[in-house]
UniProtKB/TrEMBL annotation:
GO terms for cellular component: cytosol. The lineage of its organism: Bacteria, Thermotogati, Deinococcota, Deinococci, Thermales. Its EC number is 2.4.2.3. The keyword Transferase applies. This is Uridine phosphorylase. It comes from Thermus arciformis. It catalyses: uridine + phosphate = alpha-D-ribose 1-phosphate + uracil.
Amino acid sequence: MSPIHVRGERGQVAERVLLPGDPGRAEWIAKTFLEDPVLYTSYRGLLGFTGRYKGRPVSVQTTGMGAPSASIVAEELIQLGARVLLRVGTCGAVDGALAPGDLVVAQGAVPLDGATRQYLEGRPYAPVPNPALFRALWAQAEAKGYPHHVGLVATEDAFYATTPEAARAWARYGVLAFEMEASALFLLGRMRGVRAGALLVVSNRIGDPELAPPEVLQEGVRRMVEVALEALLEV
């Protein structure tokens, strides 16, 4: 069955793929970091580009928001030949040690989302990233000296449903931040035999009335993508 949503063909998508949620960010990453990026799909606003980074083919594919959308995109990318799926996105911090613009290397994801639960048919499970990709992300963040944190994130569905108090309660169990896609991506990596990981940038602390200043967030995104691309060269 040909992909329904990612309207590409085999050969157009690289084995290594960055997965931002935002189509605008996907375009920015492709045009800023890749050599000769080519748009291979724009269907449903799920922009996908393939170019080269330091001579290696790399794709950047929009996932949209949330685990249901991200899991659809991941499944179809795998059909098209992707073998390394690396989420690059934002998160809301619950741990007080995290500051806007800091990077978070996800060591595992608490599966509070419905997509992961449906794939598992309700079974208990602990979604974790591919070890080699996780190690490469951590090593690159350390080598570059960028402020970063390593630990658990929580994947949720309803962006506005989680209260600051409820989110902070998860900090007692080691959760650093909340986001919306990593859990399903890690699970699909295991199920489909591909390597999956997640590198995030803190956009705010949950409960803050506003996001980080644009220049702080953009610099965090730049650092995140730089670390992610270097890590992709190692796996």
